[in-house]
Amino acid sequence: MRPHTLSSLLGLLASTGLRIGEAIRLRVDHVNLALEPPQVHILETKFHKSRIVPLHPSTAEHLRHYGMQRAHLYYDGVSEAFFVSEQGQFLKYLALHNWFARLCQRVAIAPTAGGRRPCLTAFRHTFAVTCLQRWYQQGLDVQALLPHLSVYLGHVHPHESYWYLTAVPELLGAAAQRFQTYAHAGGNPHA
User: Fold this and answer.
1) Which terminus of the chain has fewer CB atoms gathered within 10 Å of its CB, N or C?
2) What count of Cα atoms within 13 Å lies in the side-chain half-sphere of residue 161?
3) Looking at the whole model, is its pTM more than 0.90?
């Protein structure tokens, strides 16, 4: 079960930006793949907030396949955990952290120049930054859309998402280019 669980968990983190704790606390009844759009319910998470996170169809399909594997290996009825350990329990963060560190070492993903090691939280950061980059590339109003990203990520206030804007040089460059275009148009965003 372990390879199916871990690949499905990493895929969910990468495609949704969930916090690792939110993903490993998912129960079977929190994952609603038959709805349109498919979604997961994140209940009582950080700051006691709950939210519904819609899933991309490819993510939902992968989770359906995982659910079939889970049932085929007789984990249904044994555990309410969606991502189930070999013992039929919820996954433990420390075990996942250690596994991920070994995996990164095995595939030669090294720490950054600043010495920061790859971690499971990086999936959330990458999701948010990729979303912001896509909005900039599409010429969308990132300032207006940022509150939507904040809600999706489960932040209490939009300013909690702003640090993603300065976290990556490409985003900072895109924001600077957008400001320069705005300034040259005399402050008129539609010019």
Assistant:
1) C
2) 25
3) no
